[in-house]
Every structure is written in C-alpha cells, then in structure tokens.
C-alpha cells in the first residue's frame, strides 16, 4: 500500500492482505528478495486486513525493503512472538522507547487509551532527524517527553533522566539492551520489556536468539520478544 521515509533512514511500510489483528509487541517476518533470511519487524499498527511496519535501514536486507512500491507482493510470516499484556490493576502506564524500539509502543498506546489508562510516553533518539511518529504519540498519549543525545530536540541526555518527572504504576519499554538495563535499574515498579535481537527462523526452531532468564533458557522470538521485568537476568 505504501512504503515511505518518515525520518532519517526510518521507513513506514503499510501492507494489506490476509492479515489478522496482530498483537501489540508481536512481530512480522518479511521475506526480502535475494536474502536467505527473513527480516523481523515489529508491528507498529494493526487492524484486520492491514499492518503497518516501521523499520530502520541498517543493512542489505532493509535497504532492499526500501525498494518496495505500491502493489508489490510481499511474503510474510504473521502472528509471531508474544506481545504486551495490560494488567487490569494498572491505571497509569509509562512507555519508554529507544530509537526504532519506539515503533511497537504505538499500538500499545492505542490499546491503553481504549482501556482508559493514563499514559506517559518517553522516547530517546540520537538526534531530531531520527524522530518519527511524534504527532501520532502526542495525539494518543496524555504526556510525551523526548530526549536526544545531541540536544537537538527535547531533553539532552538519557531517557532515564526524565523518569523523575513521570507518574506511573507500571511500565513498558522497548529499545537497545543498554537502555533496557538502565530503565530496569531505575524503575521500582513492575513492567514488561521487549528485547531486540537478531533472529534466524523467527518461530523458535533454530534457537539462535536464546537467552538465560530467571526461569531458564528462553527463545526471544518464541517466548518473547516481550518479557516481564522479573524474568530477565541482566
């Protein structure tokens, strides 16, 4: 349907077809021409019959994806991974995203709003040119904060430095591992974290994305990518 650059090296790909409602935090494996392995891309938005994927150009596979145009046929594996769960007891949620890890938090924000949960959103980027979906998050979240490493937009520094300004009883986070570790250490409340990892098969057969948790070895693609805070052993 659409494949457009929405920020520096960040593209939004809209696909239509035989697509069920996909869970916030789940991902899609996209087949890329000339590449042996599919590319795992988190779900940004989903309704029956349509899914929006936001991806960052980082290598040959994602570079190839930028060449997709309207009416191209894309082969995908759907309904992969376990997404975010919203506790009934939570009334004030904090969403923390880092870079392209911000993308899967959008559908979660939409679902939180439908449940009447007060939502605060913090996103961290290297600079302003990489920020995407700013208006979309501002329209759906009650409060939004931004941090950039160079100070070109919002707070100059780390997302963790904005935490004291936020009021929440539960948190969700997605982004680079160093950010997730820092957020986990800085936040006392329970929460869920979506891990970023290179994946081979995408559905738990190759075991290439395994990690050790408090409950033994788990596969990020099959048992995750979302894990509860207490499961993770940093």
Could you give a quick summary of the protein structure above?
The chain has about 230 residues and is of the alpha/beta class.
Give the helices and strands, then pairings:
Layout: E1 2-7, E2 10-16, E3 27-30, E4 39-47, E5 50-56, H1 60-65, E6 76-80, E7 92-98, H2 105-114, E8 118-125, H3 134-140, E9 143-148, E10 155-156, E11 170-174, H4 177-186, E12 191-194, E13 210-213, E14 216-219, H5 220-223, E15 226-228
Parallel strand pairs: 7-8, 7-11, 8-9, 9-10, 11-12
Antiparallel strand pairs: 1-2, 2-5, 3-4, 3-6, 4-5, 12-15, 13-14
Question: In one word, what is the shape?
Answer: globular
Q: How far apart, in Å, are the first and last alpha carbons?
A: 40 Å
Structural category: alpha/beta
Q: Over the alpha carbons, how many angstroms does the gyration radius reach?
A: 17 Å
| Count of helical regions | 5
Any idea of the CATH topology of the largest domain? Rossmann fold
| Oligomeric nature of the chains | single chain
CATH class of the largest domain: Alpha Beta
Helix fraction bin: 10-25%
Mean pLDDT value: 95
Strand runs, count: 15
- Reading the helices and strands in chain order gives EEEEEHEEHEHEEEHEEEHE
Main beta-sheet annotation: 7 strands, mixed
Classified in CATH, the superfamily of the largest domain is Nucleotide-binding domain of ferredoxin-NADP reductase (FNR) module
Structural domains: how many: 2
Instruction: State the low-pLDDT regions, or none.
Output: none
Which strand order spans the largest sheet, edge to edge or round the barrel?
Answer: 10-9-8-7-11-12-15
What is the percentage of strand-forming residues? 25-35%
**CATH-scheme architecture of the largest domain:** 3-Layer(aba) Sandwich
């Amino acid at each position: 349907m659409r494949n457009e650059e929405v920020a520096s090296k960040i593209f939004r790909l809209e696909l239509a077809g035989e697509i069920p409602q996909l869970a916030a935090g789940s991902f899609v494996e996209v087949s890329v021409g000339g590449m042996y392995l599919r590319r795992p891309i988190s779900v940004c938005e989903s309704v029956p019959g349509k899914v929006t994927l936001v991806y960052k150009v980082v290598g040959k596979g994602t570079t190839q994806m930028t060449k997709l145009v309207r009416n191209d046929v894309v082969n995908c594996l759907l309904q992969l991974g376990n997404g975010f769960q919203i506790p009934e007891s939570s009334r004030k949620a904090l969403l923390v995203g880092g870079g392209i890890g911000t993308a899967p938090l959008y559908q979660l924000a939409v679902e939180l709003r439908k449940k009447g949960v007060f939502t605060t959103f913090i996103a961290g980027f290297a600079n302003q040119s990489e920020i995407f979906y700013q208006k979309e998050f501002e329209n759906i979240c009650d409060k939004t904060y931004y941090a950039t490493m160079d100070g070109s937009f919002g707070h100059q520094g780390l997302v963790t430095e904005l935490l004291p300004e936020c009021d929440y009883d539960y948190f969700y986070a997605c982004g680079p591992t160093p950010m997730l570790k820092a957020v986990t250490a800085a936040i006392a409340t329970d929460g869920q974290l979506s891990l970023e990892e290179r994946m081979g098969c995408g559905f738990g057969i190759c075991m290439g994305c395994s990690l050790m948790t408090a409950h033994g070895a788990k596969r990020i693609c099959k048992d995750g990518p979302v894990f509860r805070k207490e499961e993770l052993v940093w």
